[in-house]
Amino acid sequence: MLISDSHQFIFVQIRRAASSSIQSLLRPYVIPKPECRWAHLKSRIGLERDYRKYVFRTHEEMLTAQKLLPAERFQSYFKFAILRTPWERLVSEYEYILSQPSHGRHHRVRRLGGFPEFVRMQIPRRDAYQLNMVCDRQGKLLLDYVGSVETLNQDWRGLCSRLQIPHSPLPHLNATPHCHYQEYYTPQLRTLVAQHWNREIELFGYRF
């Protein structure tokens, strides 16, 4: 998560949804992440209540910002995220983990036996669902703007204007080459994803 007081925005970084690329261009405008171990420890055990000193995880839920920022500031800041169709995002995350031997789940995913098993592993994980990252506990969306990987360049241009920062083309960071995502799915697996990710599919009108 990135928070800017100077430009008054909060960016929720969704896994495998261009978050690293956008982060690289927003860094000059955001609150620096505290580097000391004590700040990290205080944040993890819930002792740090100052959002400027809190060590936000890269993929932090918007709920954390809502809890830490003064209510009027949270309401007034421009809150946004870039999301991605779940069928494609699952493929991207699967291939990314396999390509990164240092990733915490690399060896586990390698042992699964294939992509269908990865999808089933993701089903019970809270952070596998984009809506859990950007909604409150009642399911209310906490964003002012939702962009899409599928229209990323257009959305980024509009965001630069809204954030009042110079427009620069997005770099393509952490890209993982793979076949078109539709090739990973059998009809049964496609339906399985549609059943479990149905809320975000319906809310954002995603199509396979």
Radius of gyration: 18 Å
Number of domains: 1
Total count of helical runs of at least 4 residues: 11
CATH topology: Rossmann fold
Helix/strand-derived category reads alpha/beta
What summary fits the major beta sheet? Answer: 4 strands, mixed
**What is the element string, with H for helices and E for strands?**
EEHHHHEHHHHEHHH
Keywords for this structure?
globular, about 210 residues, Rossmann fold, about 45% helix, single chain, 11 helices, 4 strands, alpha/beta, four-stranded mixed beta sheet
How would you describe this structure to a colleague?
By secondary structure, this protein is α/β, with parallel strands linked by helices. A hairpin with a 4-residue loop joins strand 1 (2-4) and strand 2. It has a single domain (2-204), classed as Rossmann fold. It contains eleven helices and four strands. It has a four-stranded mixed β-sheet with strand order 1-2-3-4. It is globular. Helices cover 43% and strands 8% of the residues.
Task: Set down the secondary structure blueprint.
Layout: E1 2-4, E2 9-12, H1 19-26, H2 37-44, H3 62-68, H4 71-76, E3 78-83, H5 86-99, H6 106-110, H7 115-122, H8 130-134, E4 145-148, H9 152-163, H10 187-196, H11 198-204
Parallel strand pairs: 2-3, 3-4
Antiparallel strand pairs: 1-2
